[in-house]
Design goal:
The chain has about 90 residues and is mainly α. The protein is built from four helices and two strands. A two-stranded parallel ribbon has the order 1-2.
């Protein structure tokens, strides 16, 4: 399903070539715990954070990387997250 249903079978090799250019970070218990921490912190501040945005923020925090985004406001108030706004 997933990529096959939305892109078609012929798109899978092209998608794989694109992914080769990026580091793919694994998930583990620490990342899951950080996702929960980010989500709860947003709620405590009266902000809603999208599930996917919370995963992105948690991954940046766990890996010690800044987050480059066009959507700076989506991540405001995430404790410890270094944001680099682009655009």
């Amino acid at each position: 399903m997933g990529a096959r249903s939305s892109l078609g079978r012929d798109s899978l090799p092209a998608a794989a070539r694109v992914l080769e250019r990026f580091a793919v970070l694994p998930y583990d218990r620490a990342l899951c715990a950080k996702w929960a921490e980010v989500t709860i912190a947003a709620q405590a501040r009266g902000r809603r954070i999208d599930c996917a945005d919370a995963w992105i923020a948690a991954t940046a925090l766990i890996s010690g990387a800044p987050l480059i985004t066009h959507n700076h406001d989506d991540y405001l108030g995430v404790p410890g997250l270094v944001l680099i706004s682009h655009g």
